[in-house]
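Field: sequence (string)
Field: structure_tokens (string)

Example rows 1 and 2, in order.
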Amino acid sequence: MNLVYIVMGLALLQYLYFGFAVGGARGRYGVSAPATTGHEMFDRYFRVHMNTLELLVVLVPALPLFAYYISSRWAAALGAIYIVGRFLYFFSYVKDPKKRGPGYGLSFLPVAILLLGGLGAAIVAQFRG
């Protein structure tokens, strides 16, 4: 289970890193708070950060769910793939949003597997008694 919590912590650190990148983009592109739009490049950083939050809210509970009912090693591995996918998503979205697909797939798919696998196994365990 330690690996699961390490991966979870790394995913949270990644999210904080993306937040710092948004703050840096605010300064570089002259978008003062509380504005959430402005310069196109700022908007890209901001969208990556918010899109990451949308997946992170599912990833964090799905990791221990999958780890408990299926495998902590597989949960950690899938979480690591998510982290790599999110970095790929970050760099590709900022460079050209139309090329964000591979990074999105490498981060969405592990989250879907973690959630559906963990939930499915929990349901099976409930009915097996």
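Row 2 begins here:
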Amino acid sequence: MPPSERAEFEELMAQLDYSLFIVTVAAGGERSGCLVGFASQVSIRPSRFLICLSVKNRTFEVAQRASVVVVHFVPQQAEELAVLFGGQTGDETDKFARCDWRDGPDGTPVLTSLQDWFAGRILERRDFGDHWGLLLEPIDGEARRSGSPLTFRRAKWIEPGHEP
């Protein structure tokens, strides 16, 4: 794509204001989690959800060995958790020592202060460039409608824990 067209595309993408999620994974005795912006429901029947993880993220490394992912919906009032999971890297910080959580399906952490979440079995992994997509089949969860979602524009000030 020529630079002028790429700039137009980036300008269009800057208009989007999508919901953010905190994703947690566990494998081989390791836990990890991160803030995710690239995610969407991709099928109704069967139910499927796609999350995309940056290849620079520690969570990506653990997710490569995991079989289940927990996707937490982040309400606006949970901005502190978004900063922890989006602004710290798991290479340097034990994020789970700084928040309340419990074991969920397949030992995957469920953040107890976030009331809306689902666990998904990883059906497929796809290389999309600087992100990998994980296609999830929901297997468990809780829906309590805990508030308006924290969105990309509202959280844009959070500095990533790893280089973009």
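free_text_note (row 2): The two ends are 20 Å apart (CA to CA).
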